[in-house]
Amino acid sequence: MHRIVLTALLACLAFSVPESRAAAAPNDVIQEAVELLTEGLDSRREELESDNNALYTFIDGILLPRFDSQFAAGAVLGKHWRTASDEQKKRFIAAFYTTLLHRYADGLLEFDMDRVEILPYKGDISKRTTEVKTRVQLGDGTKIPVHYTLVNRSDQWRMFDVKIEGVSYVVNYRKELESEIRSSSLESVITRLETESGMRSGE
Fold first, then answer.
1. Which residue, among 94, 108, 60, has the nearest Cα to 196 in the 3D structure?
2. CA–CA dist 5, 173 (Å, integer)
3. Which sequence spans correspond to the domains of the chain?
4. Over the stretch 122-165, which tens digit does the pLDDT of each residue have?
5. Calpha distance 167→147 (Å, rounded)
6. CA-to-CA distance for 75 and 15, rounded, in angstroms?
7. Which of 183-203 are b and which e, b meaning 16 or more Cβ less than 10 Å from the residue's Cβ?
8. Cβ-contact 7, 108 below 8 angstroms
9. Is 148 left (phi over 0), alpha (psi -120 to 50) or beta?
10. Helices in the chain by DSSP H: which ranges?
11. Tens digits of per-residue pLDDT, 176-188?
């Protein structure tokens, strides 16, 4: 279930309004994301289903400029971000982003965007961060709350977290990596992510 819902996160991350309209309400950004993603997948679904590299490139080309990977990576590492070297930060950002990209790419093709219901926005766009609330309908008809957290940088909203039934993806991932870092090291965690995502050639 969580894989399906987090696929919706990638879906919504994939698009944002043009820079000239960046001051639009954050929920409008999500609404347009759903519409544009549906259109894009409909026109290229056969190609993307048969070529993983094409799928990764497709998502990367529209996700990377609109996802605050540094903000998200720093939130995930927590206290370890402050003690990490500049090189480790750079490597972790890349490995973390690539891991997300690969982990949910296949599910993106299976996800029905009609299952996403965007609720009226009641936040404050003058704040640095805000939350957009949605409901996602599962295959059995159950609707679960999925709330997206966005950060405003240079008058452009970018996403960096999602809460599924009140559970933050960033917090969950932070706890998972914290345990691994304590038992090994930050360097070991970065190396594992790089290897699993194919970023370390020959491994």
1. 94
2. 15
3. 2-196
4. 888 889 999 999 998 888 889 999 898 989 987 888 889 889 89
5. 10
6. 22
7. eeebeebbbbbbeebebeeee
8. yes
9. beta
10. 2-13, 26-50, 52-63, 69-77, 79-83, 86-110, 169-183, 186-196
11. 999 999 999 999 9
163: amino acid identity, one letter:
K
Query: Where on the phi/psi map is residue 54: left (φ > 0), alpha (ψ -120 to 50), or beta?
Result: alpha
Q: Which residues contact 111 (CB under 8 A, 6 or more apart)?
A: 4, 7, 8, 11
Q: Is residue 141 left, alpha or beta, with left meaning phi > 0 and alpha meaning psi from -120 to 50?
A: left
Picking from 17, 166, 151, the residue whose alpha carbon sits closest to that of residue 74 is: 151
CATH entry 3.10.450.710 includes domain 2-196 = yes
| Type of residue at 26 | P
Per-residue H/E/C for 124-179:
CCCCCEEEEEEEEECCCCCEEEEEEEEEEECCEEEEEEEEECCEEHHHHHHHHHHH
Q: Which two tokens stand for residue 183?
A: 């038992």
Average of per-residue pLDDT across 8-25: 48
Per the DSSP assignment, residues forming a β-bridge with 157 are: 152
